[in-house]
Amino acid sequence: KTIMTASTQSIRQLIIRHVDAFQRSNQIHTTQTLNKLQHELTELSLCDQMNNVELDQTEATTTVPEKEEIEAAIIHCTDCALSCTNKVEVMERLGQILAAIANQYGTVDMVLDRLKGAANAAQDVVRVKGCRLIAPFFEYSPEFVEGLLEPRFSDKAQAVRNAALKAASSLNSSTLQKASVWNCSHDPSWSNRNVALASMKNLEDIIPRVRDTKSQVRVQAIKKLHETPLQEWTSQQCANVIQAGLINERCSETNEATKVMVCTRWMKAAKYNPIKLLSHLQPFSFEAECEAVVKILLDASDDILKDLSDAEIRAFRQGLDSIPTEVAPETLLFARLKCKDRPDRLHRLIPDISCLCDCIEESLHKLASIVEKSQETESDSDEEMQLLFLCNQLFKLAHLCDLQEEGSRRLFITKCKLFLTSLETPEELLDEALQALRQANVGEQEHFDVVAEIIRELDLPPNNELAQLRIISILSPVLESTSTNLPDEQQFKHHALSAIESENALLREAGVACLGRLALFSEKCEPILL
After folding, report:
1. Between these two residues, 526 and 101, which has the higher pLDDT value?
2. Would you call 454 helix, strand, or coil by DSSP?
3. Comparing C-alpha atoms, which of 22, 51, 25, 50 is closest to residue 35?
4. What sign for the dihedral angle of Cα 172, 175, 176, 179?
5. Are 455 and 461 in contact (CB under 8 A)?
6. CA–CA gap between residue 255 and residue 330 (Å, rounded)
């Protein structure tokens, strides 16, 4: 009975029935369909053999299903797929089963020729369907498929480019990957850029899309970045994402997506240890970006952490509650921002002003020795950058320390005067040191008096260009921050004019800038430069 049922069906009917069943159900696997089709074709062949046995029991003649009939059936299914208006998912499943059947019966080239005509057709809708059907054939003829899909990336129709990009996203092809990168940056359609973005694998290709003109692409790029572990990121790449997503806010969606990535993905990779995360971000090179990260960690709401479990949220909160005790660039940055509203919690890291001054002094001595070595090798080392950042953070921490007590305040002023009069103190530290000194002084008059003492001490060796440059470097930020009349304007002007008359170009440039600031305090115009 089974054989008679199979014999009543043609080869075309069998193939069409199995293709139709496969595209209708997601539960059917390709291998299952191929095995069942092969079994029924074998039954059909056996049925034909039995029907050809002569009544007189002479030798039987057999009729084997011809290859041409199978090819015609597959081509018929391909033409039906190109002419129907099925959904994208259905078209993809049709492509899978057609490619598998064509490969099993050796008709891949014939089907690809058919799809080539569709991919190059005049109608946009036909080209779209051709792109959707062709991707599964990459396994059997990769070069041919690449040659068909790549020209469609620059098709005039947006829908065709979209279909080609979706087809290429599932293929392991370096040629199509390079073409997708170009579309991800230059395609005028944001939906096409999003499709191309889905196939990106390299951080260098994904990170620039965080600055895309469309928020949908920016958010999609950040979500795509979730797939890459933090250990594979460089500090520069992290800084680029933070700049685009947090510092240079473009929209609330991008900002929110960046916060989620930092608080859930990055912190989880750092074992919910903010110091470990900051160490990876290298605060001595990217201070503003690290500050932005610490701020969003401290302000993280439950809505931002909704993807974490209760245990992970507790670990997140506990990691932020602890105050580090080790003096390092990342610990100082975190402690400064953490204790901004609670300076009393800083005592675990910096117990008192004398301890702060000792840390600054020790760091400056280390920095001086490293600078001397780097001058011999004519190169800047990471250790030098770290110590510069460390000293800057220590001066910034002075704003949070207790300077109300007179003894501590006098000690800090004395130490600051020593730091500023020492020519070994790098220029990069002067601004923060002067701001800390201003914080310790009571009123602008006392501040000017202390600055005047520093300048007089620096002016003791005559015709010393380094001392003159240090005087100008101190005067310029002081003049920028003052809001009252200068108590010793003529003395300040004397130093500026001396710098302008110097033969050292760098000193002359600094003198001109300082003189411009001095002019703001003059009551009358003195054309001394002329």
Report:
1. 101
2. helix
3. 22
4. positive
5. no
6. 24
